[in-house]
Amino acid sequence: MIFKRWGLLLLSSVLGLSSVAHAEEFWKFQDLYAENTQPDIFSHKYSYNNAARPEKLGGVIHIRFKDARDVPEMFRQFLPGEDFERPRGISVYLAVTNDYNLLNPIAVGADTDDNGYTHGSKLSIGGFLPTGHYLQFDATSDLYTREIEGTAKQLPDGGRGIDQHFTNENVLKFVIDNIDNARAETFYWKAEAGWQQLQSDSRGNVLTAANQQDKFHQMVNNLKPGQTKTPTYISDGQKTRDGMIMGLYLGIAKEYVNAKNTCRARAFTELGGRGSTIDGASYVAANVGGVLWCQAGPRTLTYRAEIGHNSKGFQDGYQGSGYVDLSTGKKNWRIGFRLEQTHGTLHNYQTYNGRNMETGKIDPTFTIYYRHYFQ
To answer: Long-range contacts for 97-102 (Cβ within 8 Å, ≥24 apart)?
Structure first.
């Protein structure tokens, strides 16, 4: 009888606890509007996640594209140098050009004389429009000079002084292109419009190339007295000439990616021209070149090399320029160097775009630039 009573008591206790558990589950608040945590196997996100990270393969799938045009938009950010060239933000570009032979210590010989095209500067601000087109504003100033014979003199500090005629060429323009929109295509276009000025009666303001040359020569002579001449800018009697410019270029481009996805190459050809209301300043152009980007990983330095040739045909002849451009950078900065050598008949609507007065050759130019991205 005692065991029977204890058995009934134990059975009732178990049933009681079970009923309490069911009661707690029953009375638990059920939110009918709560988000369903079960994955939707028919959703695009579920399909992509499971396709990109398959559980049973135990590795990584490599998809290789020989042609960069075949790379889907969602993977373009992983292309070598993609953010390095044109990031999705505002970029500011600063460049200084001079015929002073910066490379002479490493055996690139050039006997420059500070005549002809001798100094230049460029400021560019660019970014993408909502349509995907790239819009850029360029402000450039270039200086062309010719010494006045018989004006050379010795300065009190031991330096050399000389009088020179000059022309500042100042250009403000907007450039728009669809190069990135047309990455999946073969053809692209580029258009420009702006204002052009030739200035021979005044050195202008602090932003013009004549004033920049003066400051550059002061800096060089302070480091090494007498290293370069101290010019005096003499008006040749010509008044300032202003004009409007418009240009259009059509291009063909092809991109390739290596098997390891560490280097990307692009070859291009452009045909077009620029019209100007300044007499003699219009020309037709043909440009060819190639660009190579190499980058070991998304967080490593990017190395960029470009080689090309620009040709201009105008009413007095033909001018060609070959160039090499090397740069490196990471994330939001890029620094580079450009060497350019011109040949042919110089496009001399500036009056003083001449050859070296001592050698009879065309001086090479050297450009140092820095680009910063604001993302």
So the answer is: 97/121, 97/122, 97/142, 97/365, 97/366, 97/367, 98/216, 98/365, 98/366, 99/363, 99/364, 99/365, 99/366, 100/216, 100/220, 100/228, 100/366, 101/364, 101/366, 102/366, 102/368
Tens of pLDDT along 200-253? 998 888 889 999 888 888 887 788 777 778 888 999 999 999 999 999 999 999
> Can you list the positions of beta strands (E) in the chain?
90-98, 116-128, 134-147, 153-154, 160-177, 187-199, 230-233, 241-257, 263-276, 283-295, 302-314, 317-330, 333-344, 365-374
In degrees rounded to 5, what are phi and psi of residue 345? -90, 120
DSSP state of 182: T
Percentage of the chain exceeding pLDDT 70: 74
Give the span between the Cα atoms of 141 and 45, in whole angstroms.
52
Q: Hey, is 66 helix, strand or coil?
A: coil
Cα–Cα distance measured from residue 75 to residue 220, given in angstroms and rounded to the nearest whole number:
48
What token pair was written down for 102? 């910066």
- The widest CA-to-CA distance across the chain, in whole angstroms, is 139
Q: Which domains does the chain have, with CATH numbers?
A: 2-52 (no CATH), 68-374 (2.40.128.140)
- Strand 230-233 versus strand 283-295 pairing type: unpaired
Q: Please check whether residue 253 is in contact with residue 289, taking contact to mean a CB–CB distance below 8 angstroms.
A: no
State which amino acid sits at residue 101. N
pLDDT digits (tens, 9 = 90+) for 253-295: 988 888 677 898 999 999 999 999 999 999 999 999 999 999 8
